[in-house]
Design a protein that fits this description.
alpha+beta, 40% helix, two-stranded antiparallel ribbon, 3 helices
């Protein structure tokens, strides 16, 4: 059996799963054990949600961790962008980026369907 961490009277297995990009559930190829403390109220709420959704607590925690890391990485990316803006070569396509529609479809407004 995998090791667990005790939180008051509750024990949790907290794992970060290696998975195919964009897939949170399934395809657990490898796992690293993570542990952290949470208030008893949060532990009880995680258990209620796990029971209601019919999934393991660790899946809820993996998903929450993944979502939080996505937010943090987005914020870090924005800071990198501000610190090192696009070069002229990278911005060379800006002039053609707003071409609009490839054709004028305004005369199709009276077309019968």
């Amino acid at each position: 059996m995998a090791p667990s961490v005790r939180f008051g009277r509750r024990a949790f297995l907290v794992c970060l799963a290696c998975r195919i990009p964009g897939v949170i559930r399934g395809n657990l190829l490898c796992m690293t054990m993570l542990s952290f403390r949470v208030p008893d109220e949060d532990a009880a709420e995680v258990q209620r949600w796990a029971d209601a959704l019919g999934i393991e607590r660790s899946e809820i925690l993996r998903d929450a961790l993944h979502r939080h890391l996505v937010v943090l990485n987005g914020e870090a990316d924005a800071q990198r962008w501000e610190g090192q803006p696009a070069t002229e070569a990278e911005r060379s396509l800006e002039a053609i980026a707003d071409w609009g529609p490839a054709e004028d479809w305004s005369d199709w407004g009276d077309a019968e369907g």
